[in-house]
Amino acid sequence: MFGGGGDSGYKKLSTVNRRMFIMTAAKLIIFGGIITRLFSLQINENKKYLTLSDKNRLREWRLPPVRGDFEDFFGNKIASNLKVYQLHVVPEQVEDFRYLMIRLRDILDIDSRTFKKILKKRSQQKSWETLIISENLSWDQFAKINFYLHELSGAKPVLSVARNYPYDEKFTHLLGYVAQASEKDLIENEVIKKSHVPGLRVGKIGLEKTYENQLIGSNGIQRYEVNAYGKRINQIDFVEGKKGTNIKLTVDTEVQAQCNELLKDKAGSICVMDIYTGELIAMHSSPSFNPNLFLYGISHDNWNEILNNPKKPLINRSIQGLYPPGSTIKPIVALSALENDVISTKFKVNCTGKIEMYGQTYHCWKDTGHGIVNLRDALKVSCDTFFYEMSRRLGVDRLNLTAKKFGLGEKVFNGTYNEEKEGLIPSTQWKKNALGRGWVLGETLITGIGQGYMQTTPLQLCLMTAQLANGGFKIKPKIIYDKNSDSYEKIKSEMEKNRIELLSDFQQDDAMVDFSLEKKKRDTDLYKPLYRNQENVKFVLEAMFASTNEVRGTSYSSRISDKKYQFAGKTGTSQVKKITEIQRELDLDISQIPYEERDHALFVAFGPYVNPRYALSVFVEHGGAGSSAAAPLAKKLFKTIVDRHEEREKIREKSLMEI
Amino acid sequence: MFKETALSGQTTFFQKLRSLDYILLVCILILGVISSLAMYATDGGELLYHTKSHVLRFIIFFGMMFVLSFLNIRFWHATGYLFYIIVLGLLIWASLYGITASGSQRWVDLYFINLQPSELMKIAIIVCFAKFYHRAQINQINQFKNLLVPMMILILPILLVVSQPDLGTSILIALSGIIVLWLAGINLKYFIYSGLFLLISLPFVIAFLKPYQKLRILTFFNPDKDPLGAGYQIIQSKIAIGSGGLTGKGFLKGTQGYLEFLPEKHTDFIFTLFSEEHGFIGSLALLFIYGVIIYRVIDIGKNARSFFGKLFCFGFASSIFVFISVNMSMVLGLLPIVGSPLPIMSYGGSSMLATMIGFSIVMSTKIYQKQLIA
User: Fold this and answer.
1) How much is the ipTM here?
2) What is the least distance, in Å, from the CA of B81 to any CA of chain A?
3) Sheet holding A58-62, edge to edge
4) Nearest chain A residue (CA) to B133
5) Bridge partner list, A62
6) Which numeric CATH code is attached to A253-304+316-658?
7) Which CATH class is domain A60-248?
8) Do A3 and B328 touch (CB under 8 A)?
């Protein structure tokens, strides 16, 4: 070798060979490390990374769920879904978005405010998210769009479903309504949050809200493979959504429609209930409004009209409206007095038109007085003087217990309606707690004629009447139809059994047990007697019959003599404002009093008188006298109720056959 | 020895052809086919630009390598410094008039090709050192004054490449050079000293790093911190490889690549895509081929009589090994993301050109293995 000596050359070679050997060993170790890493990623953690990879590539698009329907007892759809034509645009798939929007604006005649709103929405969402240009195309618009469709690449006319209330304003308060889900809805309801899609309608009030979770249904799901930029590459699968549960109600559209008709242009409420099964036949609050207006976002004008209506259409008077019951409470006062042996049925009072008590004058509604009246007459002619004297002897606390037993001062549907109010049945204890003052005896007197602190909802009065009319047994009001609930016959025999049981019970005196204890066994009390002695209930019912069907009865003019439709009732005229002496002397005609100061007209009734099946309450806000403003409505309604009863029984028999 | 030299000088073309290393050739060819298919997969199963261009380059450069293999090893020895100087010149050219792309000025426009001289430097530095130490006496190697020149040879291109800026390639050049220096017999203590020196100066180096480079280093230590930003590449790469499993998702079925979740899937992350589609078994097979290539190169080096050829082969084998392991470690999340292609597999003309030149020198060493260089 040139240059380097042999030794040096050899050393150099051995060095390089030795170092290369070390190097090779290092390489093996490093390759080993890489293989180990590969093994741990691909074999040990394969599952984890597969999941992550699927999460990367698969994206779900949820379709709006189809909401369950509401139907009445006869199967008429009272809330359903309508096919609507919508116009969707996916901005990402449009070549010239601005041009398309301007074309659409011209074709659909979109006003500038809506147009701006759409553009704003576009800027808030991702480019692959569907932009809804129109939620409800008219047929004209739809036809027009299809005509120009070849020029409108990117615009997609879509067939979708939307809530529809075919009965317009007739069921608004009973059902509630749906509108676009708000931030609050999402926070409050986990189910809504889970199935939310842009434009989802959810229940805002009423049954639509309460039964949201059953009604909402499940989303259809389109699963797409997407690329890193979120663009859909291809559809992997499609899961069809499930429609929400259909809910059948106990109500009758015909009766409900008539209630709506009867209360037209009035503010008020009518409730009709089966006195055995507790099924609600109708429950209407007037004035109402068309819930379909809320579907696509209510217009400013429509909203203002509803909001500024002095009769306040947004209030569901049947369950939310609190009013003094007036004389409609008298059957309960009478019953309470009898049950507590305060008076006998023979007890008499001389009514001179007014009575002096505790240094104050209490007037009867009839200035000239009723003369000498017994309890039956007092109920029939609604003599206030008699009831002043009787409630003085009874005391407010005993009245309170009876009234609460029969369903006053407590929610009729506990939980079915969020907006339902409890009302108020006063007691000495209540006043001390709530107002911090002691009970004044004079207050007992006005409580005895359903004035003062006492406040009830029309539905509570209806339940009260129903529980009197069925002979004094507890029932459970319901509005949702349940195939498995007890039949009329079963309830009747159950009540009869309980009646006999009570008769043979030695501890009859304990019938008036503390109410707070009873509250706990609310359901176990079902069909149990609410009375101590049923004769007392029968006496009150008979007096109510007299009130409607005998001369001088307050609702005599509204009677039906046909036994098939004959009903018994009690009128009520509740004061909104304390009547001053001057006003009393003026004795103004109703038309001369300002609307807000007019009396409320009330009427509670049950019928047919022989074998009663239904109870109702009519309430006309500021309607004047119960006898002239409320009772005539009941007369008109009763014919329908009884006629519809036959249809109802047919359906019931049919459903029994099906089982 | 003279006889042998004369003998080898008279070797016929047929004999030369026979003495080619066919195992190595076949392995490179297989790698070429695999890389073309992988490129085809990155194009989403269509014959698009990347695939066409990769296949074309492979054919041209493989042919070039084959032809260059017949050059006498003496030629490479003779032009060793020149090669280095030309590439260094190109580097300077690049830093002055180079083409800037994605924030880095690393290409020179040679009219028929956009060349990345830093890739060529990975080979040139080995050739240069091999020539430098071919003649050096073992007892003189470690003298301090004899260390200065190699230091200059090494540091000059590194500085040029760092300033492009291209941290990844400069590290790889440094590693190539250092390995050859060590193989040549330089005392370990010098490496330890300079290592310590680097460690001390590391804070100063970091201070000079570009923000994105700092971020990459930080991201390496905690990729989940910013999953959509800097950590995205590592996370997506790990997801792709991990989801491949034992046998992979199948050819053209790698969702991560096809759906564009993988960044740089043609170049640095080609192994990720390959591994996703072919799984653990496929990856092992690929590693095996690389292993065979490295083994063959080392073996050729062992049998080479010239120190130049031996050192080049050892250096080249080690460099390829370093490139492979750095690239794989990177996509496997074992090292921070620095731009480093996978030899032959990755898309990129300069890298392939450099690698093929390396292989032709190795082949030449094989054909002329008995050749001695004065």
Assistant:
1) 0.90
2) 20
3) A58-62, A221-226, A232-239
4) A12
5) A221
6) 3.40.710.10
7) alpha beta
8) no
